[in-house]
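Look at one such:
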Amino acid sequence: MGLLSWIVLGFLAGLVGGMVTGARQARGCIPRIVVGVLGALIGGALARAAGVGTVSGINLGSIAIAGLGSVLLLLVLEAIERR
């Protein structure tokens, strides 16, 4: 995947993660992209370890995996923030 693909996928995954968790951490385009790209890396690693699939371009499967990773990341960030 190219840089632009990672940016678009990161934005979409960050958008999904923010909508699911209602998180306030990812407000704005840049934080949303960062959360989404990190979520794609986390979700991709977990999906590959589970044998479910990988993040391989901008498609529904990749967005779902990256969205799940961003949800996990945002939940961890919220738990840390509460401390």
